[in-house]
Write a structure and sequence with these properties.
Number of strands of chain A: 14
CATH topology of the largest domain in chain A: Aspartate Aminotransferase, domain 2
Oligomer: homodimer
CATH class of the largest domain in chain A: Alpha Beta
Number of helices of chain A: 13
Order of helices and strands of chain A: HEHHHEHEHEEHEHEEEHHHEEHEEEH
């Protein structure tokens, strides 16, 4: 059958990340691979009550189809949620998606022809790169610094595209505590990127999964807040700071673009899960979503700090890392000569510890052999210490 | 922004069906447009108990991510479900999708390059045609007869493709009570199509949403049952005979193809809703899915018959239709000179009755101006009679 595969299969990501995720559930392995939220912090009692309420109050809706663009009451809650964060929008500028991953897919589907240049953080989110690859985008990485992407690198890259046949369509950004780098984009850079978008005529895909997961500092304004030229397509998700399994996320963009996404979503999955939308809606109306946004900050901070301490204590001097102030990840550079994929093959078998090799986060995997991503979100602090100890010893052994 | 749209946007379906679906909820309109199952038949009490059980027994799983390919226990239930229907398969040959619409999208994504010929029923399912259009397939319609697609038309079409640069990749079939025609594919034709697939080297996408909704007769064997050459990609869904809002469906195909779909699904939405998968799993284990498969047959048959009687009584002699023996739809030919889209514009405003114009079900809309699709699934028999009366009078008025 292979001769019948579409050309895009050749550029589609392999199933490596999926393989790795299967390790998450194995009891004998300490896995820093997941990057998934912890069920320890889910508001289960409240969610149970809300779900029961659905059966009492709207039983005929719970299992029926929703509309393609999503339920109006949920959109109304998102309008309020965004308004409290400085972004004024309306139902008409929102569409509900089946997780932000679907939004990444749909945006690429309606904007990217094979060979179109799209800018991504380097390193950047594996699922964002995957969606772009699956539509045969030409992915151009923009170097990451501690305060987000390098503006110099961005401008240099943009200058090279001037006058070329194919313009840069958009830049994909995770401004807050990005995956995997942990970097937060500074306010100055947010404004500068918006200026450059106007000057070079490209769009900004602003993805905000970790924006609520700020453990030490005030939220910065979304880029969307300054968006006077309608250049920002904003994505938001309940997965990381509330619960992920309901698969509820949203896109906020000008109405004509929402209509386009709606046409694409109708072909993609008709509509998102109704019970998921209803649960989030009622949780939002009861204030539970905002309560949870505060609670998770307290919950994850000790885990971040446990990992930071353990890295200091157990990792060889030849390693280095960035200490994030939010999100789920440490991004670690290995000693020269240690290959992260080879290291993983050994640590799974011999040390019973797992992580994601840096290769997953670059359009060109070879850029990532010296890096690993370590997630602290779904492991208790004592296990974090034990796992980092094992991993530090393994790195020392294999680099020696 | 339009100059940045991808080329495929030009062939993507318009949002017409979405617009029409919004009429479903309007109290002042009798809508035969929906084609959605009736909440009157959903097993709400049992579903409530099952959902409560999830909070008791597996609270930490309910809101967490699932794996991309779906939960093993759900696959185990589907293996049994299919085994009772003569198809032997295994976990490895299954992937869970967010509704069958996602399966239609993913299959097109991994098999269709722009311009590739794909065969569809004529008339055929709007969502199947939409998915193909969104990947710029060259859609070739195969005429429908009362016992499914015309084998003569199929052979003629295939002969024309011999020696052409681009081979036919697959045929998309809804063998049981197809949407919109209501036709069921005969056993002889099922076998013949499989023979032709071997002879002309194409694949069969067998979609079975209405297979349980057989109101007068025994289920026929799935094409998949006779599939010795691994030519059938089978889709199944819980939406029409169980509940649709959980968005749980599946694909059964050889393992290498499932792996390919899994890579595509990871880019598309990471994973399907966990609570939806868990509810269907527990319902399956308790026997509720099979009980419901029997119950819906009794529930929908009187609605089908009410529509049949009303059509006989109220529709002008110049109309004709096929009386289905299962599924949700009557497919009606209008009197010469009546345009279904123009008719709809009038009946919504003046007669307060809606339907889907036949144009939606053809790759080339002009083939459908003389037809309308009428769904009887979500309307009580008395309202069916009233709506058909209004519509019959409207047709008489506009054709006179």
């Amino acid at each position: 059958m292979k001769e019948y595969y579409a050309e895009r299969v050749g550029t589609m990501a392999g199933g490596e990340l999926g393989d790795l995720m299967r390790l998450v559930g194995r009891d004998d392995i300490i896995s820093f691979a997941g990057g998934i939220p912890s069920p320890d912090v889910f508001p289960l009692a409240e969610l149970k009550e809300i779900t029961l309420g659905l059966f009492e109050n709207e039983p005929r809706q719970v299992f029926q189809y929703s509309s393609t663009e999503g339920r109006n009451e949920l959109k109304d809650f998102i309008v309020e949620f965004l308004s409290r964060r400085g972004v004024n929008t309306s139902r008409e500028e929102l569409i509900i998606t089946s997780g932000s991953q679907q939004a990444l897919d749909l945006v690429a589907k309606v904007l990217v022809d094979p060979g179109d240049p799209v800018l991504v953080e380097k390193p950047g989110y594996v699922g964002g790169i995957g969606a772009l690859k699956s539509y045969q985008a030409r992915i151009l990485g923009i170097d990451m610094e501690e305060d987000g992407i390098s503006i110099d690198c961005l401008e240099e890259t943009l200058k090279k595209t001037v006058g070329k046949e194919r313009p840069v369509k958009y830049i994909y950004l995770v401004p807050d505590y990005s995956n995997p780098s942990g970097a937060r984009l500074s306010v100055e850079k947010r404004r500068k990127i918006l200026d450059l978008a106007g000057k070079y005529n490209f769009y900004i895909l602003e993805d905000t999964p970790y924006s609520e997961l700020s453990y030490y500092e005030e939220r910065l304004d979304y880029i969307k807040k300054y968006d006077e030229e309608n250049r920002v397509i904003m994505l938001g998700s309940f997965s990381k700071f509330f619960v992920p399994g309901l698969r509820v996320a949203w896109v906020c963009a000008p109405r004509p673009f929402i209509e386009l996404l709606s046409r694409a979503k109708q072909d993609a999955d008709l509509a998102s899960s109704t019970i998921g939308q209803l649960i989030i809606t009622r949780a939002g109306e009861k204030g539970l979503v905002e309560t949870q946004a505060r609670k998770v900050r307290e919950f994850y901070r000790p885990r971040l700090e446990a990992m930071g301490r353990a890295l200091e204590k157990y990792f060889p001097a030849e390693t280095s890392w960035f200490t994030p102030r939010g999100g789920f990840f440490f991004w670690v550079k290995l000693p020269a000569g240690v290959n992260s994929k080879e290291l993983l093959a050994k640590t799974i078998d011999e040390d019973k510890v797992a992580f994601v090799p840096g290769t997953a986060f670059f359009a060109d995997p070879k850029d990532g052999y010296s890096y690993v991503r370590l997630s602290f979100s779904d492991i208790e602090p004592a296990m974090i210490e034990e796992g980092i100890k094992r991993l530090g010893e393994a790195i020392a052994r294999y680099s020696g």
